[in-house]
Amino acid sequence: FKVGRKNEAVVSTQSTGVQWYTMWEEPHLEQGSEKPACDENKIQLFNMRFCPFAERTALTLLAKKIPFDNVNINLKKKPDWFLASTMGKVPVVVHKGKYIPESLIASDYLDEVFPEPKLNPSDPLQKALDRVVIEKQSAMMRNLYPIFAKMPNRVVTNEEKLQHFENLVAQLETFEEELKNRGTPYLGGQSPVMADYMIWPYFERIEGLPILMGDVGDKFVLPAHLEHLHAWIKAMRSTDAVKAYGFSPKRMATILKIHYETYGYDNALKESSGM
């Protein structure tokens, strides 16, 4: 088992299987912090531990077994050095002195520069079809976000949240049909591909809703008839990358609740630790 610097993710290829040294819980850097040193020949990830879009790129790095330095950013108190070199959002992959923003762009870059294991299909048509699936499922954030996040200048009622959830379930019918038609555990067949990892973070948040919503949580459970979706969720939770980085439903719900109430980052992680 190889141990890297305190915020470094390192893969060991021992015969017992993949092992990770992870420090995702490092404090989120904010205004007044110093810019971390960066090895130009190594990947550095500007991250926010529970951002679903940053999680996409973190999962890509882990699935491809690419060692990288993780730097968490407080998005409410962004450091000046972060704003000066980025678009002000995460994720950002830093490599060879260049800053690569946006989860899909950064993940595609990683897949091309580090070709094994390949996550995007080699067939351009299949890659395009997978992107259609990603875009369709990404659209459900319009209904998912108002359920767990604080909306500007208004309070979303439970009745409104339930309507958003019902709209979300209706959107998921297309994903259920997609999984049924493919007839495999993952979108990529017997192993996950880029599309699986790009979609997955939404479902960690969906699985946390019944806990987050408390007394009315039973109304926010994914219907049993989405059987292919439930099987896919179970399969994704078994992957090394998700086991290394992902959240349990209970921890996800706790983090979302604390962040909603306090806009906190590190306190949300600390108080939910071990869940």
Task: Describe what this molecule looks like in 3D.
α1 (52-63) crosses α7 (194-212). A six-stranded mixed β-sheet has the order 2-1-4-3-5-6, covered by helices on one side. Residues 1-6 and 10-21 have low confidence and may be disordered. The longest helix has 25 residues, at 158-182. By secondary structure, the chain is α+β, with helices and mostly antiparallel strands. The protein has helices spanning 52-63, 80-85, 103-113, 124-138, 141-148, 158-182, 194-212, 227-237, 240-245, 249-262, 266-271; strands spanning 8-12, 19-21, 43-47, 68-72, 92-95, 98-101.
Short synopsis of the structure:
This protein is an alpha+beta fold and 275 residues long. 48% of the residues lie in helices and 9% in strands.
* Backbone shape: globular
Number of strands: 6
Helix count equals 11
Strand content: 5-15%
Q: What is the chain-wise order of helices and strands? A: EEEHEHEEHHHHHHHHH
Q: Give the N-terminus to C-terminus distance in angstroms.
A: 25 Å
Overall mean pLDDT score?
91
Percent helix, as a range, is: 40-55%
Q: Structural class of the secondary structure composition?
A: alpha+beta
The main sheet orders its strands as 2-1-4-3-5-6
User: How many strands, what sense, and barrel or not for the largest sheet?
Assistant: 6 strands, mixed
Q: Which segments are poorly predicted (pLDDT under 50) over 5 or more consecutive residues?
A: 1-6, 10-21
| Rg value | 19 Å
